[in-house]
Design brief:
CATH architecture of the largest domain: 3-Layer(aba) Sandwich
Structural class: alpha/beta
Strand order of the largest sheet: 4-12-11-10-7-5-6
Number of strands: 17
Strand content: 15-25%
Oligomer: single chain
Largest sheet: 7 strands, mixed
CATH topology of the largest domain: Aspartate Aminotransferase, domain 2
Radius of gyration: 21 Å
CATH superfamily of the largest domain: Type I PLP-dependent aspartate aminotransferase-like (Major domain)
Shape: globular
CATH class of the largest domain: Alpha Beta
Length: 400
Amino acid sequence: MDTQEIIQAEARYLVPTYSRPQIVLTRGEGSYLFDREGKRYLDFAAGIAVTALGHAHPAWLEAVREQSQVLTHVSNLFHSEPQVELARRLVESSFADRVFFSNTGSEANEAAFKFSRKWARGNYGEDKTEVIAFEGAFHGRTMGALSLTYKPAYRLPFAPLVSGVTFLPFNDLAAAERAISERVCAVFVEPIQGESGVHVADSEFLAGLRRLCDRYHALLVFDEVQCGLGRTGRLWAHEWSGVSPDIMTLAKPLAGGLPIGATLVTGPVAEAIEVGDHGSTFAAGPLICSVACAVFDEINQPDLLQRVAQNGENLRAELLAIGEDRILALRGRGLLLGVQWEGPVKPLIEAARQRGLIVITAGEEVLRICPPLTITPEEIEAGLEKLAESWNALERIDGD
């Protein structure tokens, strides 16, 4: 099938939950993607911060090749070494004592929700069920995770959702002090809110939440599905604040494009969970975990993390240089940046794609830039040139 035949067939056979551009991507190499006509695109989106090592990375390919030839799936009814190896890496590099594996970020947050309530019930009684989340939060689209997600357009069509969730203003510690009580079992927060415009949590805000959770015997849950695993220039985004959570959720980049989620917990939380409390047929199979180990080992290198931090600083400076009066605000850290635009950014995204650059939104008026962590300074410069060309082209159209 050619491009239009594929697009028409999709409209015939798929549930229409996505609005996609009129291109069909067929392969990737490093920081580039190629469509069915052979056009090359510099990838400043990384599959929504998923393909952290870029496309067809040698270590990723080798892990897929080796493990796929021996064992891909056994279910969680049996032990397998790759699952243990991945869990060991995550525990030894973080605050956590145990890991629960799932398939997606939504599932990781579902597990965190369930674990929080089970922990609270066992330790403090059945009335400690309330959960705090924040305006602008995105924690997923399954029913529990959706109940923690703020955007009304995502929530309202599926109401009623899980009860007991209260949303507070993001970065407003005074509001948290008024709302958090002995009835709260968990506080869910993203160190960087990705979907609502790339908003960074203040260190003082996270430290204050930690104090409040300790005071009222609640669990502090960090959702690092998008901002974790090297994206900010440190392995975990919360490291910038010096604040440790009780639970952390991961997903997007962990297996570099294959589906996996992880819920990391402290020992006391793990002790509240018993055999049969939760599970997943497909989670943490040998193939996925072998690949995730390879991805983790590549990312958890001081030189790569340093390059991410440096490239992020250079990207920020160059965006401000080319943006001049066009940029209302520039938020984020490392290689997760949000460019606040005056008006909808969809025309800019379309203009950039025409010039061979893929960027995405973080809300209607925010351009999100989250390229592979392995992107080079030369590729960043090339992408910014395309972005500047796109800005200039739109201004000429507006001027006419």
